[in-house]
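Retro notes, item 3 of 5
We never archived the inputs for the 2'-deoxycytidine-5'-monophosphate complex last cycle. Fixing that now. Sequence and ligand:
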Amino acid sequence: MNPNKPFIIAIDGPAASGKGTLARKLASHYKFSYLDTGLTYRAVADELLKRHLPLDNEDIAVKTASLIDFGSLDRAHLSEHEIGEAASKVAVMGRLRKALVDMQKAFAEQSNGAVLDGRDIGTVVCPDADVKLYIVAAPEVRAERRYNEMMEKGEKADYNAILVDLKRRDERDMKRTESPLKPAKDAHLLDTTKLSIEGAFTAACAIIDPILAKR
Ligand code: DC
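Structure as it came back at the time:
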């Protein structure tokens, strides 16, 4: 390992697997910078929706992405369920992905340490990451988490509709030709179905600490 290179933790997994919460907690614990790459796809989808533009026109999507200030994204707004669905649709486009991935790679390289979460971090964005985690959880548990999140925010939520959406999103994210969601060969699998946030954090630290200690 090159000690001058930033220490990178790559976290991938399907929607509502708990990867974002875990990534944020790890970044704060290790004092690393953090990038939620899903937000970058969500920002493009949101801008297209706001301008009533199609979600499947690559030229328009790339142009729209070039106009967004990725430094000041509104996480609360972009986290809305429908924007996630639209993001999954725009995320199938190769040239759009290339533009966003270049920016994500630059982010990873600019700090002492960084945590990035998404679908293709361990496979495409940071293939040389020091630690790769692939987070999974049963679809029913993920739907329940998303349902509870929406209820807490006072939004209208329908468990069955959320479950159907999540399964459709998994399928789209895993079956697309461009950088499909899949674990990197050297990823550590972490199943959070029966784990609390604290439990997932402890399990992740048990993987990361010995690797960090060797630096
Ligand atoms: O993690 P999320 O729910 O915010 O992601 C929204 C969508 O963006 C997801 O369904 C697929 C896409 N995405 C992607 O293709 N690659 C990433 N690295 C992150 C997100």
